[in-house]
Design a protein that fits this description.
The complex is a heterodimer.
Chain A (H helix, E strand, L loop, with lengths): L4 E6 L13 E3 L7 E6 L3 H12 L3 H21 L8 H4 L11 H4 L11 H15 L1 H6 L8 H14 L1 H9 L11 H4 L3 H15 L18 H12 L21 H36 L1 H81 L11 H17 L2 H14 L3 H18 L12
Chain B lengths: L12 E6 L3 E7 L5 E4 L8 E2 L1 E5 L2 E4 L1 H9 L4 E3 L23 E4 L2 E6 L8 E4 H20 L5 E6 L5 H13 L3 E7 H10 L9 E8 L4 E9 L2 E10 L4 H20 L7 H20 L2 E10 L2 E8 H25 L9 E5 L6 H10 L5 E3 L13 H13 L4 H7 L2 H4 E4 L3 E8 L2 E8 L7 E8 L5 E17 L13 H10 L7 E20 L4 E8 L5 E7 L5 E6 L3
Parallel strand pairs in B: 1-11, 11-12, 13-18, 18-19
Antiparallel strand pairs in B: 1-2, 2-3, 2-4, 5-6, 5-7, 8-9, 9-10, 13-14, 14-15, 16-17, 21-22, 21-24, 23-26, 24-25, 26-27, 27-28
Helix pairs in contact in B: 1-6, 2-3, 4-9, 5-6, 5-7, 7-8
The chains are: A mainly alpha, B alpha+beta.
């Protein structure tokens, strides 16, 4: 798109008299555009979509795309070769290849067993480009020493063959992570995980079963932790120790010697394998012993059992206490009730007496009242019959009336004083009331009619 | 690192062209070229037919052979039924195979697809899934890798319901539809992705002449981006129309000899159809083709030959219909044959030499007719859309699904397109000439760069950027003075028709300046130098114009504000 199309026409010369600021003059505007749907197909459309979505202009987009391309190639150039070469390593002799660190020779010591076959291939190419004997000769290096080049070739031979690479990986001590000390891992709750995780990550490379369960963290569930330790106690390792074998002599002359060496190697391998299994077991034991989570789970389990027992006891105690309390309360209540009844009785007695006294007094008032008005005698001494009839009536009223009415009657009589008519009136009214209330029969009274 | 196994990387996508009569699968081979994959039987055009006998499924050519003996359990021509309701479908193509029936809101077929005698009702979506599953299987077998994604081509008139139904059917077949692309655009992409192709602005007519239907589309290709300007469809015109002519020809010949009409017998008709189609295809390659059918009718074996001239004579009318469709679509886009830069013939019928020849005679010399009979380097027309789909699949298979969705969103695809061409006006003496730099229908924003010569002696030059429009100039080569008489298009078409037996008139495209936009001066250009002009148009119709001498330091810059 950015390439210019060359059009074979000649531009006209500037007409005389044409002038403009900065040699540019806008003289018109574009006519309106139509909206249409682009077909979302093809590389140029994708570029258009990219520009539109990221709001880039043509030149911006070109620049960004170009930068992305450049970055990619640079990364390719840089990744492996960035590792420095140890001058001691450059002096190595290819003869003792068994003791050389093949990954370091290829500059892959950061990746080690994680390096992919493709990385090995590329790393080899880079190293060869640098250390090829012809290159050295071209640089004017006189000595014909191509030993490091041979080291590179040997390293590639080992690492590019899956079987040989496994054998080397099995004994690649540089990839091992030493288990941390007890003290270090107990320093803080976090340090246990921080220090042990890389140990298991490095050991996990020998597992035939992938992926390997992770150590997890302090929040792991019981199942996760259980699963982790079960896995490691039943670890299925592909680790082999052929790499450490003694060289078997291949001359045909000494067959016994050869067999002897082979037998020795087989035994050594077996021994190492057993040792390795024991080592791993020991390592997992150590880890489990230091694992706070296991202790926590046990404590939690125990706490769970204790809790039930304690709860039961507490419940029994609570019930007993409640019973005792209920009993005491009941007793108290009984006592209170008795006392209250006694007091009531006494009070009633007193009231009764008082009422009796009041009634007596009132009755006296009644009798007094008739006496005061001289038994309603008109004049002179009342006749015995009149006195008797009046008193009979008063007694009758006294018998028929209750205490309160008696009190009110006494009050009214007191108010009437010695006015015979008024007293008689009060009595007559009282009789009427009593008759109306049905307490006395008409005609029962003789005098107050 | 080397192993990138993120979600998008695990996708393995192919291109599928899913047609009514046949389907194709394509991929990008390690050399980066699109390649159509042959299925187990070696077919690159796999008939879209499924057939069932005793619970066993047959697909492709094997299923097609079943059309004769087992037509009621053979499903064919079902693509157009997908996502439609029973009322709106045309069941004619299925006359000789399982008939479509209505179930719920969709179309289905009643076929015995299991070992039991009772027929099952199988929906068209299910049939499509089975078909796509077979295509996927063929591709996976060929490539040795599980194919799990695809770009599928659809006709331009596929509606949303049909698209959804197809996507769902593909999903059920284990294919992630990355994108559905239009068949004509896929064909254009297949041509434009050839290594020798350059990105130019052009107007393309894609004629997709299929087995049962034909479509045509006008596509504006501007800076590699495609815009469909118009489409035309003919749902009855296709290879089957030509087959019918061949069938009728042989049937008449048979009646003459044996006094029975083989077309009256269903099996005879099926045999005749099958062989007739093969004969018609053979005529695209050779000048003679034979037809021989055992026991065509009443146990009579039949054999005959037909030559191409006879066939072309008989089919003249149908051929004219094909080219008529092309002319129709150009008219619909309000264009003229002179505007068309390229005609792409796609679909099986495009192999027919005569159709391309007729098209050749319609279009002017400069128009490229991309069909096998007119251009030796033409891509096999049957493979075009599958190839286009494969190219698109390779472009987007690395993308995240969300990225694809965002990219094909109307927010991105709906863009303003230039209504008038923008170019530079040249005045030399009295003659005024206009050369377009940005053509009409260019999607905005757009940027174009061009280099122009300067006068031999150098010095100051003047650039005038204008809007222009094209006109059709008709010149009658009369012996006297050349009379120029611009006409409207309709008139021209008529006059074109009339003047067939008279002397031919010369029609050409001329550009006329409509309105100046900006004027620039580049001063002090060296002799034999060149001036580079860059025009950048924003989506809001604002312009930035830069002109400078090639290799020079200073540039003249200016902006024209949006209207």
């Amino acid at each position: 798109m950015s390439s210019a199309q060359v059009i074979d026409v000649t531009l006209p010369a500037l007409p005389a008299g044409w002038a403009a600021d900065k040699d540019f003059k806008a003289v018109g505007k574009l006519s309106a555009a139509t909206q249409r749907n682009l077909e979302p197909v093809g590389p140029h459309f994708l570029a258009h979509a990219r520009r539109k979505r990221h709001h880039r202009t043509f030149s911006e987009d070109e620049r960004i795309q170009a930068q992305q391309n450049v970055k990619k190639t640079e990364e390719d150039e840089n990744d492996e070769i960035s590792e420095d070469e140890d001058p001691m390593m450059l002096q190595r002799d290819a003869k003792d290849w068994k003791s050389q660190d093949h990954y370091a020779v290829l500059g892959l010591s950061k990746h080690r067993w994680r390096a992919t076959p493709d990385m090995v291939k590329r790393a080899h190419r880079k190293k060869v480009l640098r250390h090829h004997p012809d290159k050295k000769a071209a640089l004017g290096d006189r000595d014909e020493n191509d030993s490091f080049f041979k080291c590179i070739q040997k390293a590639t031979e080992v690492l590019s063959d899956p079987v040989k690479r496994r054998q080397f990986d099995s004994v690649d001590e540089a990839a091992d992570v030493e288990p941390p000390s007890k003290k270090a891992s107990q320093k803080s709750p976090q340090s246990f995980f921080k220090l042990w995780r890389p140990v298991f990550e490095s050991e996990a490379r020998f597992s035939k079963i992938q992926p390997v369960p992770q150590l997890g963290d302090e929040n792991s569930t019981f199942e996760e932790v259980n699963n982790f330790y079960n896995f490691w106690y039943n670890f299925d390792s592909w680790r082999t120790f052929e790499y450490l074998d003694e060289d078997v002599p291949d001359d045909n002359e000494n067959r016994d010697q050869k067999r002897h060496v082979e037998k020795k190697n087989a035994n050594a391998r077996r021994k190492r394998k057993t040792e390795d299994t024991a080592r791993l077991r020991h390592l997992v034991d150590d880890c489990a012993a230091l694992d706070e989570r296991i202790k926590n789970f046990r404590k939690a389990a125990r706490a769970g059992k204790d809790k039930k027992r304690l709860e039961k006891e507490a419940e029994a105690k609570r019930i007993a206490e409640e019973k005792e309390k209920a009993r005491l309360e009941e007793e108290q209540r009984k006592k209170d009730a008795e006392e209250a009844a006694k007091a009531d009785r006494e009070k009633a007695k007193k009231a009764k007496e008082a009422a009796k006294n009041a009634a007596k007094k009132n009755k006296r008032v009644l009798k007094g009242s008739v006496k005061d008005v001289n038994y309603f005698a008109e004049s002179g001494e009342p006749s015995a019959a009149q006195v008797d009839s009046v008193l009979t009536d008063v007694d009758l009223i006294n018998a028929k009336i209750d205490n309160e009415e008696l009190a009110s009657l006494a009050e009214r009589l007191t108010a009437a004083g010695k006015d015979a008519a008024a007293v008689k009136n009060v009595y007559t009214e009282e009789i009427k009331r009593l008759v109306a209330a049905g307490k006395a029969k008409e005609g029962e009274v003789k005098f107050f009619n | 690192m080397s192993d990138e196994t993120n979600g998008a990387g695990e996708r393995f996508a192919i291109g599928i062209s899913f047609g009514n009569s046949s389907s194709s699968i394509a991929r990008i081979n390690p050399e980066g070229k699109a390649e159509v994959i042959a299925n187990e039987e070696g077919d690159r055009q796999i008939p879209s037919i499924l057939s069932y006998i005793g619970g066993e499924q047959y697909h492709g050519t094997q299923a097609k052979a079943q059309l004769i003996r087992n037509s009621e359990n053979t499903v064919a021509y079902f693509r157009d039924y997908l996502g439609k309701d029973f009322k709106s479908i045309d069941p004619t193509p299925c006359h000789n195979s399982a008939h479509p029936i209505q179930t719920d809101s969709t179309v289905a077929f009643s076929i015995r697809d299991t070992e039991s005698e009772t027929p099952n009702t199988v929906t068209v979506s299910e049939i499509t899934t089975r078909h796509l599953l077979r295509l996927k299987q063929s591709a996976s077998d060929y490539l040795g890798k599980e194919v799990n994604a695809a770009v599928i081509t659809v006709p331009t008139d596929f509606n949303d319901a049909q698209r959804e139904a197809l996507t769902a059917a593909a999903k059920a077949a284990g294919l992630d539809v990355l994108q559905l692309i239009h068949e004509p655009v896929a064909a254009a992409l297949a041509y434009d992705a050839r290594p020798e192709a350059t990105v130019t602005d052009k107007l393309t007519v894609v004629a997709d002449l299929g087995g049962t239907r034909s479509d045509a589309a006008v596509i504006a290709s501007r800076g590699g981006m495609y815009t469909i300007l118009a489409t035309a469809h003919d749902y009855e015109l296709g290879g089957s129309s030509l087959d019918q002519i061949v069938i009728d020809h042989f049937a008449k010949e048979f009646i003459k000899k044996h006094k029975t009409d083989p077309r009256e017998n269903a099996r005879g008709l099926a045999k005749l159809k099958m062989e007739g189609e093969a004969t018609r295809k053979a005529l695209s390659l050779g000048t003679n083709a034979t037809l021989s059918i055992e026991s065509l009718a009443d146990g009579i074996d039949y054999g005959s030959t037909i030559n191409r001239t006879r066939y072309e004579l008989l089919s003249n009318k149908v051929f004219a219909q094909f080219t008529g469709l092309i002319e129709q679509v150009i008219k619909k886009a309000e264009l003229d044959v002179l505007d068309i830069d390229e005609v792409i013939f796609s679909g099986g019928v495009s192999h027919t030499p005569k159709i391309a020849q007729i098209a050749r005679s319609i279009f002017p010399e400069k128009t490229q007719i991309l069909a096998p009979s007119t251009l030796t380097s033409a891509i096999n027309p049957s493979e075009l859309s599958a190839r286009g789909a494969a190219i698109q699949a390779s472009l987007i298979q690395e993308f995240e699904t969300e990225d694809i969705e965002q990219s094909i969103h109307p927010m991105v695809t709906a863009t303003p397109h230039l209504n008038k061409a923008i170019g530079v006006e040249f005045t030399s003496g009295d003659a005024v000439e206009f050369l377009p730099l940005l053509n009409t229908q260019t999607a905005l924003p757009a940027r174009r760069v061009a280099q122009y010569n300067v006068p031999a002696e150098g010095g100051d030059v003047f650039i005038r950027v204008c809007e222009g429009s094209r006109e059709i100039k008709v010149t009658k080569p009369e012996p006297k003075a050349k009379e120029e008489k611009p006409k409207t298009e309709d008139d021209e078409d008529d006059s074109d028709f009339d003047s067939d037996d008279e002397e031919e008139e010369i029609r050409e495209v001329v550009w006329k300046t409509e309105q100046p936009i900006a004027e620039l001066a580049v001063k002090g250009v060296k002799a034999k130098g060149k001036v580079e002009l860059m025009i950048h148009i924003n989506a809001d119709l604002g312009l930035q114009i830069t002109a400078r001498e090639v290799g020079g330091q200073s540039a003249v810059r200016g902006a024209v504000e949006s209207p």
